[in-house]
């Protein structure tokens, strides 16, 4: 079995580490300073509202908001209620940015990323503090191999076994997927849905196994294939360094792997999680 090797993300190990040249201490210090100033601003607005209301000018909610676009503003709520909501919103944005900079998102499949983002929408997200940041990213660092392997398994399990090319034991020379494209009298078009996520996940895993940088969503396999289909309406195939993709009017596509060495690494992961499925190598 070949060793699982991929480019590790720059995740945190102790308080002296940096995420993209941004120190944890600075993030926490400036986050706390911002919250202190926001609370002072809320109290000041409340004092001003008391003054203007006493002379018949109503409150900040009346004279500070555009009348045609009047909507709620946490700065004009009671301090305790407002600070809870503002702190949660601020911390949510900071956690998203930290996760993006850490490199961990590149190891996650679409389902894992969605689970992460959904967890940030809850009311009980952990406060941004040095202890919480270190604890969170140390745990992620320790589990990065499992996160990556779980993504491989998830992509594999979502293949349809109705096709002989899709082996229930391994990734073969090619796989067949349904619903990747649509066909009308104007030609082919690319379907943007969970199949798109599956294809992007597959490219990401192969790139990591190859030690190559992962393209962002403006240059990933889904964007390149979509552009190819849009620009070449009469074409029914696409090829790059990793895949040869032939698509059909019924919507299915044959995806041939062009790097058998990387396919072997995917299969090593499957064999690790499902021992006995693959025959031993001679």
UniProtKB/TrEMBL annotation:
Organism of derivation: Lelliottia aquatilis
Q: Does the keyword Nuclease feature in the UniProt annotation?
A: yes
- What are the entry keywords? Endonuclease, Hydrolase, Nuclease
What the entry lists under InterPro entries is as follows: DUF4942
Stretches assigned to the DUF4942 domain = 87-275
Q: Name one Pfam family in it.
A: DUF4942
Q: Name one GO molecular function term.
A: endonuclease activity
Q: What is this protein called?
A: Restriction endonuclease subunit M
